[in-house]
């Protein structure tokens, strides 16, 4: 059986400080009800490794919200020169987002040099969820509340510290470099980890039941069957077209390119875009294939629950629940999915 390691909670600070020699380390900290990523400053007082996913999505570390992709008339790629990131406390619902982001930026015909560089260089330290919040429904999308793949190192928080799993050669190198901080995990510690995973699993199951969230096994054909349904217009009634549901989502990836002069020269910028905004699909001459808000809402669901399963065999939703919290119009993806499933 593969050996698991244990990191005592008193060794978290030297571990993170050791990593900070090679990476710009970002850690989750709690502010009020939410958790946010913050640059590690050498102290672990505010760091929250367990609990649930932070407010902002992981994608922000891989495709920046705004970046320069070409400068002047140079033919070199203007990569950022900062240290690569080590992102700590990444949850399974964000890691699942890689299935979509990798498909778009890395694994198909188009190879995005910025995304690929970040994927290759950044270090991901995952973490089990140690509780669930009301909006969590990862299990309905087949995502467990603990990372199973796509991490370099994973930390399962228990009473005295963390059970550690290494997931890549990059993670192996980091653990080796800090070997004196780790010991072999005991049977009791492994059992504590499993018991906690089972408890959180149950919490998410209860959430799903309480909120009547349909499971992905029922999603087949829901968009096609409801294409002309009144549901879209009804759900879009309160939408204010802010685009928060897209920007907060770990799987949404659409972007806009534009040219602008910076202090000295012309530069081409890339910023995140939102398919909920009217101008998103407008073409030269002013024609717009999705002029109505309900059409754009339908398109958002179509992309997530029809297009992506068809082209890459994955639903472009991880059940993270962020869009539920972020939407000022209180449009709840779980309720829309339930209506679509029931209306079939
Ligand atoms: S659609 Fe909503 S719940 Fe699904 S991954 Fe995106 S933000 Fe999370
Ligand atoms: S977050 Fe809500 S209000 Fe904003 S665009 Fe999305 S659905 Fe509309």
Average per-residue pLDDT, rounded, comes to 95
Structural class determined from secondary elements: alpha/beta
Helical fraction: 25-40%
What's the total helix number? Answer: 12
Low-confidence stretches: none
What is the 3D form?
globular
Please, how many domains? 2
SSE series: EHEEEEHHHEEEHEHHHHEEHHH
Largest sheet: 8 strands, mixed
The unique ligands bound to this protein are: iron/sulfur cluster
How much of the polypeptide forms β-strand, as a percent range?
A: 15-25%
Taking strands numbered 1, 2, ... along the chain, how are they ordered across the largest sheet? 3-2-5-6-7-8-1-9
Distance between the termini: 46 Å
Q: Find the count of extended strands (DSSP E, 2+ residues).
A: 11
Radius of gyration: 21 Å
Q: What does this protein look like?
A:
By secondary structure, this protein is of the alpha/beta class. The chain has helices spanning 12-19, 92-96, 98-107, 113-121, 169-177, 187-210, 222-225, 231-236, 244-247, 293-312, 322-326, 333-342; strands at 5-8, 24-31, 34-39, 66-71, 85-90, 123-127, 153-158, 161-166, 182-184, 255-261, 266-272. β10 and β11 (266-272) form a beta hairpin.
Observed structural traits:
2 domains; 344 residues; eight-stranded mixed beta sheet; binds iron/sulfur cluster; 19% strand; alpha/beta; globular; three-stranded antiparallel beta sheet
